[in-house]
Amino acid sequence: MRVLSRKLTRDARRRRSQLVAIVVTVFLGVALYAASFDAFRNLQVSYESLYDGLSFADVTLVGGDPEAVARAVAEIDGIAAVETRTVAETPLRIGRADKLLGRIVEVPPDRLPEVNSVMVLQGALPSSLSRSDVLVEQHMAEHFRLGVGDRLEVLTPTGWSAVEVAAVVASPEYLWPARSRQEVLTSPGDFGVLFGSGALIEGVSAESTRSEVAVRLADGADGGAAIDEVVSLGTAAGAVSTFDQTDQPSNAALQEDVRGFGEMSFLFPVLFLGAAGMATSVLLTRLVISQRAQIGLLRANGFSRRTIFGHYLVFGLAAGLLGAVPGAVAGSLLARAITGLYTDAISVPITVIEFRPSTVAAGVGFGLAAGALSGLGPAIRASRLAPAEAMRAAGSAAPPRTGFVERVIPILKRLPAPAKMVLRGIGRNRGRSLATGTGVVLAIVLILASWGMIDTMQILLARQFEEVQGQHAQVFVERIDTLSELRSLDGVAAVEPAAQLPVTILAADTRYQSSVIALPPDTAMHTFRMLDGGDAPLPAAGLYVGRALRSLAGIDVGDTFTLVFGDTRLEETVAGFVDEPLGTTAYMTLPALAADLGAAEPTVVNAAMIRYEPGADLAAMRAVVVDVPGVRAYVDARALYDTVQRFMGLFYAFVGIMLAFGAVMAFALIFNTVSANIAERAGEVGTMKANGVGRRIIGRLITAENLLLMLLSVGPGLVVGHLAAAAMMSSFSSDLFRFDAVIRPTTYVFTALAIVVVGLASQGPVLRRLQELDVAQIVRERSL
Amino acid sequence: MTERTNRTGMAIASLHGVEKTYGTGAAMVRALRGVDLDIRGGELMVLLGPSGSGKTTLLNIVGGIEPATSGRVTVGGADIASLDDAARTEYRRTSVGFVFQFFNLIPTLTALENVQLIAELVGGGEPGRSELVLRAVGLSDRMHHFPGALSGGEQQRVAIARALVKEPPLLLCDEPTGSLDLETGRRVLALLRSLASNDGRTIVIVTHNSAIAAIADRVVTMGSGQVTDLAANPAPAAAETLEW
Known about the structure:
By secondary structure, chain A is of the alpha+beta class. Chain A is built from 24 helices and 22 strands.
């Protein structure tokens, strides 16, 4: 059917603007899919590659006699390597002005560890690591500009002890430098990691050290079963707590992020391809309506239903294919750039970028599927047209009649004729009006889902750092006496004692890595926002825990659970659930903690929360506070906030691109429906022109109709958009980040305005074509 | 009703008790009410009647583009009333050609391509067949023009060429001059007359214009869905002499 194909080509050429709009939308959808999916896979493979290369531990056992625990698990089938080590939590000092939370991880003095190895990025591993040699984790080195030969100090019971940087390294445990499962957003200025010899760690206070047994499974081992056995035997051999890769703080944070990419690779392309499908359906439906007589003629001449069906379906498929092929290729290329930017931003030393033909094939398949699905309806409609009926009727648009609104509000019948035309035009072709409305709704969904994420992130982070946390800084102190010195400093408004302990929460079958923060009963440094939205003081007995534990551990208010830290196990009661954007932390009063530990309250205090006077210079205050001898480490709450904001930079860029894409999609979709609107009434527009009605008046009538339609669609669009944003944010929520969609009222207003502006702009090319409308041509052809 | 003369060949299509209704209940319309009619090979038959008399419905039923509600319609000995959709499609492809009042040319195809489209459908025929047919209808210098660039008469001649290219035994024309001026209409009718007289084609023309009846071999007059008169015309007039 060469001639029939030629007809198809020319039909497409006649509607090239609409076709281009569809192709662009499919292109964007498929490109987004390929870019986000390949970036998602590239990141996964990059991490896996690094984890494999550096033997990242599959499971870690904490506490007990490490040698005994190691012996117990070493004989299990499927174990590749077992490494024992000691980890010390001790403050670090760099120069005189910086004190930060530090961690020293033991490495063998003469070799790289068999499990949790490190990659040397600068310098070299000494043949024998002395007590004064350290390897500095790359994020800390970068923040403090530390290089080989530089010196820093670690706190020992006898005071600050100098060490020298032998090398800068990357570690699979600190690709994302999270201090703990609950402190994944630690500022590199507040927390740093060193790798040193056992001799160095021996010099650090024994109270702050813990033993660990890191276990690496062999390739091909049954991960789940082997880990269960390691946990079971290790615990029996004395390990106090365990965590696997899923709960390892750095990996948990990175996987959370990668999961976001995975979800984006599904959600956004679905939106775009849905919009492209809608536009294709509108265009094809219009094509079928305008070619009814041709279809009737072809059928009358013996063209089969299948041929007619295929003829119109091919149109949708072609639109899908034209957008999908370049989209898949562009997406794959974009994925390379995104992966590179991303791994560079978080300093992943190995970046694996793969070209995946399967992604290109899937992208092309999605484009084709969108084209086929959207073309299916019109193609079936065309193939089912009875020839006699097709040639008898002029079109299928519902005959204009008094609309529902006019029947309900009779006064509208008194409107002038042009206004009635506008009003009735909407009900004239309900399918097209519905498509325009759906297009507006989809575009709003895309914009609100993207913009809503920015709003939600900003509002919830502000809530965390400005409402929930009342302190400007948290300092770790040697003794409670230090607090009086802090209170006496100029610029300090308030200081409260605190205790912060890393713990494992045991409830039923759940083991959850968390932190307990103990504060005075009447603390003014932390606002406890409860699940019901109200604020409450700390409970006299029991603990508040983060809301995520409710579902994770299946516990409720009044239930008991076990807190494990070091070799201590405490039975505690849930007094309530706090609703906080970041982390799933447990809170209790200092007196309650002291009572549970059987210690005097002053002895359990290891930190202080500080609030400065309004307008205080935070950097200057840091220097002053760090200089107080009893201050071991300083955590700047504001710096953490800034770190989070920086971390969000990539995210904002991605969302910004989505917004731009959303505008293009909205433009394409509305342009197509408006084009169909005008093409559908070419005859009447021609007649109006023939009767001397000017282009501007006709343009105003069409604009008024589309504007009314858009305004009618904006309300439902904002509702659906809000729900979509909520669903999307909820999919990003975890025990580490709790994101309930919070969207600023101004965002709704700007979104609505933006859609109306884009909608009106999309009319431009169509209205310009009114000028070129050849009345004689319309009459001669009797179809467009 | 009487049949006055029988000057042409054997019946190639026969209708017996054909009924056609549209809609149901109070909205039911009886478009045809028990029509009996033979269409003979090589004749030019004019179906004459006012709007709503059922003549186009009758033409559509003979052409297989819509089924009769009841009755028998045999064409070439086969009962097309009993054909399913696929068989009716095949019947239309091989046995009938249509010419419509509104030409129904595909605007994105040239005159030649409009004809070639149908030629390809029926297997292409010999090379150059489409050009030949277009030349036969007097469009040798207009065949590469798009419909929008053709006059009404030229468009209708393309439509006739398109119907002829598959060499159907039966050519069905629904108001072929309805959209044409007198002079152009005469030319189109002359072409149809010549196809019947010189090529031996069987042609049925539906019209409400009684003047056109003068060129027919037989004239069937319809009213209210029934054949009210069937008259033979022993001396068909030349189309060029018609006036309306």
